[in-house]
Each structure stands twice: as structure tokens, then as C-alpha cells.
Design brief:
2 domains, three-stranded antiparallel β-sheet, 257 residues, 10 helices, 71% helix, mainly alpha
């Protein structure tokens, strides 16, 4: 009877470890964390629990198992957004678990809370931030300060348009294309009406909020870490996003010239 209870406890423990590792990995993957960081987090958590974790991760899914057993779990990744706050929270929880500050049950509960968090920055702050980025980068690229207010307003309007296109079209790359097309047309019209000669610099600043800088960085880091499949897929995704932005601007010039 004692042996049966002991075996049952071991099985439950393994299930909890797999669930915690898979949940942590899923949250980090959906939040655009690097592959090596995801795998390292899951392996460290498994090691702390006394298990050797085997994992295989891609952009669209992950497999995780305990070495020496037949227990295997997998998760499908259907959406990915940039949310470094969740990545930081998962890393902090994994450190607390590895350091013995929380047990596996507490870890699971806190990971579930992080998983279901839906409150991000308020919409008005996102819009203003896009305006600051667009106008600020316009100045950095050599634009004139007199165009700062107009660039700020256009960048804010462009981000609102991007959110509308993303909701209506439900296609990531088409949303970027539509937003850049809108920004290109409005920037060119502004230059024609007010006679500014800095339309190119304005456009450089306006599209900066949509440039996939994090995706490019993560792609290079994954490639250097030996994750060739994820590195290439992230690179292709970043290239397609950049191409969609470029095609939108080019199309705007073709329409108005």
C-alpha cells in the first residue's frame, strides 16, 4: 500500500512538472521570447524538480517530455505578440521556484494568472507612444523640427488606422501594408499642401513603430544559439513584415506621382 501511494505521488509530481514547464514555455513563446531562453527556463525548472526535461520548440508548437519516461506533452502556438512583461514575469517565477522560494503548486497557480492576463497598456497611451516614436525618429533621421507636430499627429492617426485594419482584415501582413499605405498617402499630401521637402524623412519616422526590430534581433540570436529552424522562420516573418511596409509606401508614391 505504501509503495502504491509513493508511485502515485511520483506520477502526480511528474504531471505537475510537465504542466508547469509547458505552461511557462507557452507563455514565453506567445510573448515572443527567444528559443534558447524558453528551453533554458524549462530545463532549469525540470532540473530543480529532480527530472531531466527534454524539449523541442518551434515557432508554432513545442514538445516536452521527461527523460526515461513515456510522458510527453505538446502545445500548439497559434498567436504571437510582443509582450516582454510576461516574459519577465515567467523568468522571475522560474527563478523563485529554482531558488526554493515557491513550490510547484504555487508556481502553477502564478503561471496561470500570468497566462490569463489581458490588460496591456491603455489604447490612448499606445497611440501617443506611436506618435512620439514617429516624430522622434523623424528628427533623428535628419528632419526639421517644424515638421514635428505634423509627424506626431500623422503617426497617431496611422497607429489608429493600423489597429482598425488589423481588426477588420485579420491578416498581420496586410494590416501593415494598409497602415503604411495610409501613412505614405497622408505624408505625401501633407508635403504637397504645406510645401515641405522632408517627405522622405517623415515617412522614415512614421513607419518606425511597425518595423520588426525585436523579431530581427530574436532571429539573429536564435541562429547564433543554433536554433536554425526558429531563427529562419523568425527572419522570414520579419522580412515579410518589412516588405509589406515597403510595398505600402511604394504603392502610395505610385498612386500620387
Amino acid at each position: 500500500m505504501m509503495n502504491e501511494n509513493f508511485n502515485m505521488y511520483q506520477v502526480d509530481d511528474e504531471k505537475k512538472v510537465l504542466e508547469a514547464c509547458l505552461l511557462a514555455g507557452t507563455i514565453m513563446m506567445e510573448s515572443s521570447a527567444e528559443m534558447y531562453r524558453i528551453e533554458d527556463t524549462m530545463i532549469r525548472m525540470g532540473k530543480k524538480s529532480g527530472h531531466q526535461i527534454l524539449c523541442y520548440t518551434t515557432q508554432t508548437g513545442m514538445f516536452i517530455a521527461i527523460d526515461g519516461t513515456e510522458k510527453l506533452r505538446m502545445a500548439s502556438i497559434n498567436k504571437r505578440i510582443l509582450n516582454l512583461d510576461k516574459v519577465t514575469k515567467v523568468n522571475q517565477l522560474s527563478r523563485e521556484y529554482v531558488n526554493g522560494e515557491i513550490d510547484i503548486d504555487e508556481l502553477l497557480e502564478k503561471l496561470k494568472v500570468v497566462k490569463h492576463e489581458r490588460i496591456y497598456f491603455p489604447l490612448w497611451l499606445e497611440v501617443i507612444s506611436a506618435g512620439v516614436i514617429g516624430a522622434g525618429m523623424m528628427v533623428v533621421f535628419g528632419g526639421v523640427l517644424s515638421d514635428f507636430p505634423a509627424t506626431f499627429i500623422l503617426a497617431c492617426l496611422g497607429y489608429v488606422a493600423y489597429l482598425i485594419f488589423a481588426k477588420l482584415l485579420q491578416l498581420k501582413f496586410l494590416a501593415e501594408f494598409s497602415a503604411s499605405l495610409f501613412l505614405g498617402i497622408t505624408a505625401i499630401m501633407y508635403a504637397r499642401i504645406f510645401g515641405t521637402g522632408e517627405v522622405n524623412v517623415m515617412i522614415f519616422g512614421l513607419v518606425m513603430p511597425y518595423v520588426p526590430g525585436v523579431a530581427i534581433t530574436n532571429s539573429i540570436r536564435d541562429l547564433l544559439a543554433g536554433h536554425l529552424i526558429s531563427g529562419l522562420s523568425r527572419g522570414v516573418e520579419a522580412l515579410m513584415t518589412a516588405s509589406a511596409i515597403s510595398f505600402g509606401i511604394v504603392f502610395a508614391f505610385q498612386l500620387l506621382h
